[in-house]
Design a protein that fits this description.
By secondary structure, this protein is α/β, with parallel strands linked by helices. The protein is built from 4 helices and 6 strands, in the order H-E-E-H-E-E-E-H-E-H. The N and C termini lie far apart (34 Å).
């Protein structure tokens, strides 16, 4: 595709020796193996609740590309503490990909644990937390007045567990 050829030119110009790990974001492996990895940032959607449960499918698709290419590729598991972009729905400027606004209750850390729970089925190479401070999407784990340090502590717990089985 034209987009892949464009990224090939960019990669050749900026990282000709492939000294840097490049990660593609999305549900499909269009840019792999040109990009050595894949992760999904948006784990939930108003019309597709619990989309994070599909992470094993996305990981398998990457492993299929890996096998065909004969290269090591990397799948990054993604977890999120909650989601709420309803406040951003009427913002005068929003640079995110358009999607219907919605919210997912954090349930005192249970949503975070739910998104983490599927990682044992992906055989991922590392984990991405969405996010430290994306307050606009309601995914922040940064300590603050609303949640204290609950999500930093929970992240430590989940990361230690992740390392123990990956």
């Amino acid at each position: 595709s034209e987009a892949v050829r464009g990224w090939e030119r960019i990669r050749a110009a900026t990282d000709p020796g492939h000294d840097t790990l490049w990660m593609a974001e999305g549900l499909f492996t269009y840019y792999n193996p040109l990009f050595e990895g894949l992760y999904v940032y948006r784990l939930d959607h108003r019309d597709y609740p619990q989309a994070w449960l599909k992470q094993p499918r996305w990981a398998r698709a990457l492993r299929d590309v890996e096998a065909r290419a004969g290269l090591k590729l990397y799948f990054a598991d993604s977890i999120a503490p909650g989601f709420d972009d309803t406040r951003a729905a009427n913002a005068p400027v929003d640079y995110r990909i358009p999607a219907p606004p919605f919210a997912r209750d954090r349930r005192n850390g249970q949503y975070y644990r739910d998104t983490y729970g599927v990682t044992t089925d992906t055989h991922g190479d590392f984990m991405i937390v969405k996010s430290l401070n994306e307050w606009i999407e309601g995914t922040a784990i940064e300590p603050g007045l609303t949640y204290g340090d609950l999500y930093v502590n929970l992240t430590c717990e989940l990361a230690n567990d992740y390392r123990s089985h990956n």
